[in-house]
Design brief:
This protein is an alpha/beta fold. The protein has nine helices and nine strands. The structure holds adenosine-5'-triphosphate.
Length: about 250
């Protein structure tokens, strides 16, 4: 099966310098996969997403996107001036106008049906994230790219949101590329995890990454939780996904 996006030796620099943000990254995402990028603050997660989408120049390497690829993107920071009145309906029609029926269908998919006439400023954090996801789904994407989609949500809200993403993948067959800080939830809902710190520290199934020394060195005590998850979930089936790197050998 051909990759939706594939990158080889991707290297990016801080603008105007030769100071690398990302070094020599190999990456691919296939149709229907859920791939999550984790890493500490400043490790280059958003930069990787932007470079893969062609929003940031490469210093070296190459990125290939499937020519017909439709992407639904939720960027990390969505800045809205809440002083400007804007209904959900109008927001969904920016920049491309959609019919009321298409808007309602997308809102139904993300469990916020009936909110079209609501002002954006009157939505809860969880509702707003769902509206953003609905907007990303409007043009029937092959790939959803979500940069920290659960920021501002509480633990139950976060869990519910990841369930929703899995459900959307099941319904639409779209692949999902996410950045997240919610290690435990990520480990439960991803097919593959990429642990980034300027370079790919380790990569593979959630189970593989959670036991990798590089991941544990980066996340310390927090990593213990995800490891415990796998100690208690031996029945979890990720056999269909192959690990791409041996973390220990990578260094
Ligand atoms: N436009 C830019 N100009 C200068 N430096 C930048 C720019 N974009 C990113 N950087 C730097 O690149 C590094 C990686 O930033 P990036 O936002 O990709 O990290 P991140 O892993 O997404 O971080 P976080 O978890 O905090 O969102 C940081 O040191 C950041 O300051």
């Amino acid at each position: 099966m051909s990759a939706l996006i594939a990158a080889r030796h991707l290297t990016t620099h801080r603008p105007g310098t030769t100071d690398p943000i990302l070094r020599n990254i190999d990456f691919r995402i296939d149709p229907g996969e859920i791939v999550t990028v984790v890493g500490p603050n400043g490790s280059g997660k958003s930069s990787l997403i932007r470079a893969l989408l062609g929003h940031m120049p490469l210093a070296q390497g190459q990125v290939d996107r499937r020519p017909d690829l439709r992407i639904g993107y939720v960027p990390q920071r969505v800045q809205l001036d809440t002083a400007i009145p804007l209904t959900v309906r109008r927001f969904l029609s920016l920049p491309r106008r959609v019919s009321a029926a298409a808007a309602e269908h997308a809102l139904q998919r993300t469990d916020v049906a009936g909110l079209q006439q609501r002002q954006l400023s009157q939505l809860s954090g969880g509702q707003f994230q769902r509206v953003l996801l609905a907007r990303a789904l409007l043009h029937d994407p092959h790939l959803l790219v979500l940069d920290e989609p659960t920021q501002g949500l509480d633990q139950p809200g976060m869990v519910a949101f990841y369930r929703l993403i899995e459900e959307v993948r099941r319904q639409t067959g779209a692949a999902v590329l996410m950045v997240s800080h919610d290690l435990l939830v990520v480990m439960r809902s991803s097919d593959r995890v990429i642990c980034l710190n300027g370079h790919v520290c380790c990569e593979g199934t959630p189970q593989h990454v959670s036991t990798a020394p590089e991941y544990r060195a980066l996340f310390g005590g927090e990593a213990e939780g995800t490891l415990a998850l796998y100690r208690h979930r031996h029945d979890h089936d990720h056999d269909h996904v192959h690990d791409h790197h041996d973390c220990a050998a990578h260094h």
